[in-house]
UniProtKB/TrEMBL annotation:
InterPro entries: PAS-like_dom_sf (IPR035965). SUPFAM superfamilies: PYP-like sensor domain (PAS domain). It comes from Pseudohongiella nitratireducens. This is Uncharacterized protein.
Length: 203
């Protein structure tokens, strides 16, 4: 990897091409030489603010500073975990705040590259703007809460279920608790519906 500067118009061809393939933002961090780190201008356009003229810390520090305070600790912890174990997946929806306080939601995918000694050496992060989707989801959750409607969804790979706040309350679950959907359906009063749902999930 040849030396690259921190702005898109000064980067090398490889990183510029990577940035062009990710129109909502992309950054690269060299953990051993911060002068080689790079962030695309598209990221700043997505967040809604001009690119800084300088970076007092690392690209990661600057990036973390744009995340909502409610999520900063969690994301920082996930970053550290990925650096300790590069095989760990990082595919998170992150809440960013512009300097004016405008919310921007981005789906961020991180790749950790290791050195020949097995130590983390480089980080690459792709961004996809999902603000519209998150806005619709928030409106739906607000409407359901007002109407006192509960709902749940299932990850078909893990078969774990996620529940709205109202559903958690109705089922006596702790906040953000994930449970196998089969366990939930076993306590469903309407056993006919329960069997039908189980059958559809298994097909």
């Amino acid at each position: 990897m040849t030396a690259v500067n921190r702005h898109e118009n000064q980067g090398n061809d490889f990183l510029v091409n990577m940035g062009q393939q990710c129109p909502d933002g992309f950054w690269y961090e060299n953990l051993s030489d911060s002068k080689q780190s790079w962030i695309s201008d598209a990221f700043w356009r997505s967040i809604g603010c001009p690119a800084p003229s300088s970076f007092p810390g690392s690209i990661i520090d600057t990036w973390l500073s744009m995340i909502s305070p409610n999520q900063t600790v969690e994301i920082k912890s996930l970053l550290e975990a990925c650096c300790q174990n590069p095989e760990q997946a990082f595919n998170e929806v992150i809440h960013f705040l512009s300097p004016e306080g405008v919310s921007v939601w981005m789906k961020c995918q991180l790749l950790v590259l290791s050195s020949s000694r097995g130590e983390p050496s480089e980080l690459l992060c792709w961004h996809s703007n999902v603000t519209d989707m998150m806005t619709v989801q928030s409106l739906q959750e607000t409407s359901n809460r007002i109407a006192n409607i509960g709902y749940w969804q299932v990850d078909l790979r893990s078969m774990l279920s996620e529940f709205s706040d109202i559903t958690q309350e109705l089922l006596g679950l702790t906040r953000n608790q994930q449970v196998p959907i089969s366990d939930v359906l076993d306590v469903t009063p309407d056993q006919t519906s329960s069997r039908q749902i189980k059958k559809s999930l298994m097909t």
